[in-house]
Automatic annotation (TrEMBL), chains A, B, C, D:
Pathway: Metabolic intermediate biosynthesis; chorismate biosynthesis; chorismate from D-erythrose 4-phosphate and phosphoenolpyruvate: step 7/7. It comes from Lachancea fermentati. This is Chorismate synthase. Keywords: Amino-acid biosynthesis, Aromatic amino acid biosynthesis, Lyase. GO terms for cellular component: cytosol.
Length: 376, 376, 376, 376
């Protein structure tokens, strides 16, 4: 449904053509400084129309905090947030209405809810993600103060153009150690920090735009400075919660953590991350990090990193032979201009969902640590 | 934590060296025939020691239903199930005790819970999965009666040896349409239905066993005859729940549905699944199935299929330079014989978790359909 | 926290002096007619300032649906609702600020959240209940269409003035069978349908107002035409969920169902409700209804009725010797005019919470009935 | 359903005639000493057959911990517990089978689940409460170590015989301050610490036993040394969770906290609990405690006390004119010997449920306090 998280919990509402979209964030730590200025930057990064790589609709997406703060501090009570929809009128592409868009949610929403929203896929609209990003910004602020947690997502693949993301390659581990949002944004709207491929990625997207087509991509995300002990086996392992979060993002088709799919080819003797004693932190750490910062479902203090593939956008202006709702063969060509690649815009959404998972995991684990300190 | 599911819900308990492992399954439909005979087959498929491909420990793993049935019928009340641990004594490998096993859960469990179970990783033991498989068998029985839902998982990769699992290849789609558990088991303990690679997979495992090493693999799973409308956007999309379930299985490192990671290279014009009217079912169906049976987070009636990578097992008898809990450098060589590849044994666990996700999704959706029938 | 319900689920936000209060209602049946006109009437009944019996602040409390409907029909997606706060400025009674109001939530909110909202008790404000009432109105609309479920609450006691609510008295059972909201409102703002005591109740309230004091009361609620089978033993018995709901309302101090506290004096031979075969409904029914419509935690189809005591309002203008936050003895006299009895205004809130419990219970039970129809 | 609690969470299973009853307790603090000896005492207090006041069936009810502890310490993993049913055969009263017992759960269970357990009411069996008591004992052990939390329940009414439980009476507050389980048990099986009425209560029960009838009663419970800040407004106020817990106990019909129903007659000027500065604790405390230790849904550090009415037992051997399942008039007289008053046996169950609510509330609040310490 539309609630995510247990102790740090967001509930969202809103479609593309209703009055507003928004969310309620419950469980926010009380006494934390919080104003719209903490939230708007990620919302603006999520916003379409930032460049010719994205759809030209310019929604201003100004967030307004409704409740839960006073004099710039959180009260510990639920934080209501609203972003008005500027486009509240029904859509304008009437002949498309007879067709469920292939690989979009039009058909399945109708099957599920028995009613067709004028926008087709109802909550499958990208505007649904505004509430996630707003809530994630609050989670991030808490995590920052907790242990300077840094969450940075970036584009590692567009179509066939990819930067190296092999976890066994020290160069990639170096990127994971040093990448920042500033570096990601410095790459421009493509959000790929590897200058050797970023240009090609832009061309790839432009090529498909020219063909009225679309193309997929991969977002990789790293989380640094994570406390050990996060994650709740056996069903709520930290990677399971991250996977849940990432696969809930529109257009995502997978998830891999650490060495992921490629790692299955590596024997245990090479894949295992041996321990060493780290003089700086006075703790055990691992020499390599094929595990991706999680072992047995629990964070081990190393960088958490994972990748999420996003499929090519379903709505394209190219003609597609398909069938109408009534079952008649026909050809659909979506009117209007459509985003040929949603992948770069997914970056702040991936960051937001990661922040929500972590903030919740921290609250759960800290209650356990407290309890243990009492009984042991 | 140790509860999974909302309306069809399992809660599990048990480590490797305690008295028993088991689960409570709540929300089972009342009036359904159910005895241990419905559950034991999948438990036996999960059991180690079935062949030289697996660890030789022969645990009999007989399930005993404690409650919730009478005269072979479910009462609608919680079903308690127990499987006794035959090996209840503490483990016998004492010198290993000074070392957290690299990439195992020993270190993180200690960090999280502040206490070290004699078995090291506590609930990270493979025996934890017994409760999942037992519960999954009940879910499956319900799904079978619902719409003849068929869930079949199989091994598609061991190390570098892989069978084709390209969704755009009609041959692979044919396998997804026709694979059965009987065919999977006919392949022997390797559980790969492609005879052209199954032998190589066995050799791959044997090679690593010979080297006191381990190797990873991939399990692919197909679910056929799924009703449309399952999945609860925006956070509990069906693929999100499946990903959550799969990443909660020990040693899993990822999840991809439909075209997954490879699909990002395919432009929308080819990736989109066009609709056609199916005379047999009198419904819209899709000509291709790159979506993997789910669109917008909701099942569309086509086959659901996904793949899950399992890393090489962490416990190997080969010597590993690492550090002790105390931070001293040393060399660990695990005593005893260890399973060089957990992948084939993951097959019934993947099936069980898929069944649990689907049974829960069905109950949720059917309550909505009822409600809609009242108000519309 | 601020979410209530499992399948039919409301999440609320908002304090007394923030921008708006509101809620998100998830799980609303799709395809149901719904506009603000369905929601406003109960909000208006909840509104203060309806008469001299209540506080004179006149908040207009106009609800605005933000999402989840189109062309007057629900989409099955979350329904966001907002009611603007007219009084968004900080409060004006500055010398009171040094005192935690006795028996109010000022002290405990500070203990819990470590921060003091300018309004003192944060979410303990009566405005918090607006979201409940708005959500409850939607639940009620569904229940009405389900089986003409009727939920009517009314005042049965103010201070020492009480109408008979003895369940063994056929006269009271007759009232439960016939009371309507129209009759309740016809009694005026006191909302007591028994004309023989309603006038005295008004005088009781006026007396305490004159003394700058406050007084408590009891609200009784009946729910008619309830389907059998609702409630989820063993922990979520229907009466347990109702009790949870009622004790979550500000100022409530208890709950009793059916014969309640008085019933413990009645021996089983008299208290038990014998069955008879009802020719009209072709079902077993009970001759008496001391159980209050629920047996073993499950609805039996008879009227559900229960009572909820509301304590005298904590904020009074009379001088109260107490202590400041700093621990200094002093005398507090709340400025402004305060509601001497919140009981009559609790009527629509009790109805709303009852509707939310029932709608959720219906959805849960209907999914079970479906499942059973498949397997039996 | 059969799970209770969020962070400290119990899931139970078992009917009266199945193999065993038991539970899984998740979220238990790791590193806590725990053996069966911590759990058995409360189970033995719950056990029937302790005297002629109760049913003579002597079930030994020996609990066996299955998992989650090692060498007498908790591991932080789920604790499975089992109590074997000695009476596993189907029941012996065959002619009763045609009748749903009036005011028992036989009829409603059949309506809900569509299947009739041989024991009639399935999970409405008193044996269902064994899992609650076992889990509650663990919660209590944690609370004891937290802040020496003391939970003592006792019988304050049987039929018309009652001890004073007026919260405005200092004598009653003195009892709440000083009552212990030892004093309660010293009163014998009646569990009423007021010697001036305990004998009459025993006679009352004996009278109804002689008449093959049954009688109800009230259990009052006090919780001392509660930390401030527990409870999660607005829906999970501490009293709401306690009410939920208490109304989930078989045969309970209500709940009142602090001044409860009687308190509505007391004006605010007398009902409000004024603050004073307590030199001992260096904190604000209240001079009176009409609130019952909770204000605004949050514990204020004073004693929490509440009362729960239990109806007369439904199963009586006296003849009852009623109807068969088939709708035929007839007379039912239950065979066997039946407990004429379940109230005294409810004492440890009330204590257990109170402990479960508190342990969960503590874990929630402590995670918030941690978060606040980070951000403020």
């Amino acid at each position: 449904m539309s609630t995510f998280g247990q102790l740090f919990r967001v509930t969202t509402y809103g479609e593309s053509h209703c009055k507003s979209v928004g969310c309620i964030v419950d469980g926010v730590p009380p006494g934390m400084s919080l104003t719209e200025d903490d939230i708007q930057p990620q919302l603006s990064r999520r916003r379409p129309g930032q460049s010719k790589l994205s759809t030209p609709r310019n929604e201003k997406d100004k967030v307004e905090i409704q409740s839960g703060t006073e004099f710039g501090k959180t009260l510990g009570t639920p934080i209501g947030m609203i972003v008005k929809n500027e486009d509240q009128r029904p859509h304008d592409y009437s002949d498309m209405d007879n067709y469920p868009r292939p690989s979009h949610a039009d058909f399945t929403y109708l099957e599920k809810y028995g009613i067709k929203a004028s926008s087709g896929g109802g909550r499958s609209s990208a505007r649904e993600t505004i509430g996630r990003v707003a809530a994630g910004a609050i989670a991030e602020k808490f995590l920052k103060q907790l242990s300077n947690v840094e969450i940075v997502a970036f584009v590692t693949q567009i179509g066939t153009i990819k930067m190296d993301r092999n976890p066994l390659d020290p160069k990639f581990q170096h990127i994971l150690n040093t990448i920042t949002r500033e570096k990601v944004d410095a790459a421009g709207p493509i959000r790929c920090p590897d200058a050797s491929v970023a240009g090609d990625m832009v061309h790839e997207i432009e090529k498909y735009r020219g063909e009225k087509d679309s193309i997929g991509g991969v977002v990789t995300c790293v989380i640094r400075n994570v406390p050990t002990g996060l994650g709740e086996p056996c069903f709520d392992k930290l990677e399971a919660l991250l996977a849940h979060a990432m696969l809930s993002i529109p257009a995502s088709k997978g998830f891999e953590i650490g060495s992921g799919f490629a790692g299955v080819e590596v024997p245990g003797s090479k894949h295992n991350d041996p321990f060493f004693y780290d003089e700086d932190s006075k703790k055990l750490r691992t020499k390599t990090n094929n595990s991706g910062g999680i072992q047995g479902g629990i964070s081990n203090g190393e960088n958490i990193y994972f990748s999420v593939p996003f499929k090519s956008a379903a709505t394209i202006s190219q003609e597609q032979p398909t069938a109408t709702y009534d079952g008649k063969d026909g050809v659909l060509a979506a009117k209007g201009r459509h985003d040929p690649s949603v992948t770069p815009r997914a970056v702040p959404i991936v960051e937001a969902m990661a922040a929500l998972v972590l903030a919740d995991a921290v609250l759960l684990q800290k209650s356990r640590e407290f309890a243990q300190s009492i009984v042991a």
